[in-house]
Amino acid sequence: MRRALIGVAAGAVLALAAASGVSAYWQAQQTLPGGVATSGDLEVSAMWRDGTPAWTNLYPGGTTADATIRVTSNSTGDNLRWRVKVTSTVAPAFTSHTSFQAWAGACGGTPIPVGGYGSFGPTDSVDVCIRYTLATGAPATLQGQSINPAITVHAEQVGG
Amino acid sequence: MDEAVETRTEHRSGKRTMAIIAIAAGAVLLLGGGGTLAYWTTTATLGGGTVVSGDLDLQPAGASSWTLTPEGGTATPVTDLSTIDIVPGDTLTLAGDFTITLVGDNLVADLTVADLASLPTGILPPVVNVTDDTGATFPGTGLTDALDGEVVSVEVAFQFDPATSGTDLQVTDFVFEDVSLTLTQVDPTP
C-alpha cells in the first residue's frame, strides 16, 4: 500500500513538472532599468470670439449672421495632435428645417467635415465660424418659436 | 518416556530438512532470476571520446536608453521618463546592446521579457525585437548559435494602447518596472 502511494506521488510530481514546463533548460537573465512616465491630457475650451451673437429673427431662406467660436487647447503630450469637430442641435420642431454649417477660420472658408478638421498641437487655437439657415419650406407653425441652438465643440486626438 | 523423546527428535529433524529444502529452492530461484549462471561471455571495447557542453549567456554590452515614438512617426530619445507626457498610440522603447552566447549544435533560445509582474493599465504587452550585426531585425524567438558571440541590439517596446478612448488614463503615472530580459533555451523541435 505504501509503495503504491509513493508511486502515485512520484507520478503526480512528474505530471506537474511536465504541465508547468519547468524542464531544466538553460537560462540567462539581465535587468534593464525601468522608470515612471506620465500621460498627457487633451483639454479644450470654446468661447465666442466676439461675444455672444445677437442673432436677429430667422425667416425661411434666412441665415444667421456669422459667429465665430475660438477653440483653444490647453493640453499636454509630447506627441499630441488633435482635430476639431463641431456639431449642433436645435429644437426638435426645427431639426428637419434648419441647416448648420461650420468652417475653420472665416465663414465660407474651409468647411469642417463631419469627421473633423485639422491637426493641431497641444496649445494651438482655431477659430470656427458657424451659420444656421432656416429652410425655405419651413412651415408657418414654426413662427415665433425659439430654435434653441446648442453647439458642441469636440477635440479628438489624431492618430499617426 | 523414551518414546516421547524420540518422537520430538524426529519432529525437529523434519523441520530442519524442510528449512534446508526451502533455502536451496530459494537460492536456485534467485540464481535463475538473476541470470548469473556461468554462460559464456566476452567483451569488446569501443573507442570513446570527449563531448563538451555548449553555453548560453546574455551580457550587457553598453548602457540602455529609452525612446518615444508617436504612432506612425519617428523615435526621439528620452533622457528622463519623468519629463515626457505620453498619449495613446505612443510607444516607449527601451533599447540596449547585449553580447549573446549561444553555443550548442541544437541550441535554440527565446529572448523574452520576464518577471514583469504588472504592466501599467493601458500599456500593451511588450514586444521584443533583436537586431543583429548585419542590421537585420527579427523577433526575439528561435535564436540559434548563428548569433553566438555577436553584440545584438535588443528593443523592448511598450505601446500606450491606441484604443484608449474618451479621456481615459489622462494625467496618469505609468510605472515601468525594471525590465528583466531572459534568454531561455527552448525545445528545438516544438
Describe what you observe in this structure.
The complex is a heterodimer of chains A (160) and B (190). Chain A is built from 1 helix and 10 strands. By secondary structure, chain A is mainly β. Chain A has one domain: Immunoglobulin-like, CATH 2.60.40. In chain A, the strands form 2 sheets. A 5-stranded antiparallel beta sheet of chain A has the order 3-4-9-6-7, with no helix packed on it. In chain A, a hairpin with a 5-residue loop joins β6 and β7. The longest helix of chain A is centred in the first third of the chain and has 18 residues, at 2-19. The N and C termini of chain A lie far apart (69 Å). The model of chain A is unreliable at 4-20 (pLDDT under 50). Chain B is of the alpha+beta class and 190 residues long. In chain B, 17% of the residues lie in helices and 34% in strands. Chain B has one helix at 2-34; strands at residues 55-60, 65-69, 76-78, 85-86, 91-103, 108-114, 127-131, 137-139, 151-159, 173-176, 179-186. The model of chain B has no long low-confidence stretch (mean pLDDT 85). β2 of chain A pairs antiparallel with β10 of chain B.
Low-confidence stretches of chain A: 4-20
Major sheet attributes of chain A: 5 strands, antiparallel
Q: How much strand of chain B? A: 25-35%
Write the CATH fold name of the largest domain in chain B.
Answer: Immunoglobulin-like
Distance between the termini of chain B: 87 Å
**What spatial form of chain A do the alpha-carbon principal axes imply?**
elongated
**Biggest interface, residues from each chain:** A-B, 26 and 54 residues
Q: What topology does this entry show?
A:
The complex is a heterodimer of chains A (160) and B (190).
Chain A: H1 2-19, E1 27-32, E2 35-39, E3 44-48, E4 67-73, E5 82-89, E6 98-104, E7 110-111, E8 117-120, E9 125-134, E10 150-157
Antiparallel strand pairs in A: 3-4, 4-9, 5-8, 5-10, 6-7, 6-9
Chain B: H1 2-34, E1 55-60, E2 65-69, E3 76-78, E4 85-86, E5 91-103, E6 108-114, E7 127-131, E8 137-139, E9 151-159, E10 173-176, E11 179-186
